[in-house]
Amino acid sequence: MTVTKLSVSFDEELAGVVREAAAEEGLSVSAWLSNAAQDRIRNRLLRVALDELAKETAPMSAEEADRLVAEALRGATLTGQTADRAA
Question: Treating both helix axes as pointing N-terminal to C-terminal, what angle do 29-56 and 12-24 enclose, rounded to 10 degrees?
Fold first, then answer.
């Protein structure tokens, strides 16, 4: 895999939180930021796909949305992800 080196800047407090989170997960800061970027891109693509699907289907009821969120959170628990990683 070819990699590209990027230089990024964070305010001091955020940089500390990023370093701490990476260390807690046993990752380098680069690997942690790469995972975070992949998560954001995946969420963005999912949002686009869901918006397109919503145009083609009837509106979802609040009860159905609640059921799907609960199901997703159960799945995240089963796979060892935290709720914020599942979102």
Answer: 90
Contact 42, 87 (CB under 8 A): no
26 conformational bin, left if phi > 0, alpha if psi -120 to 50, beta if neither: left
* Long-range CB contacts (within 8 A, 24+) of 41-46: 43/87
Length of the chain: 87
Q: Is the pLDDT of residue 17 over 70?
A: yes
Report d(CA 61, CA 44) in Å as an integer.
23
Model's pTM, two decimal places?
Answer: 0.64
9-42: b or e for each residue (b if 16 or more CB lie within 10 Å)?
eeeeeeeeebeeebeeeeeeeeebbeeeeeeeee
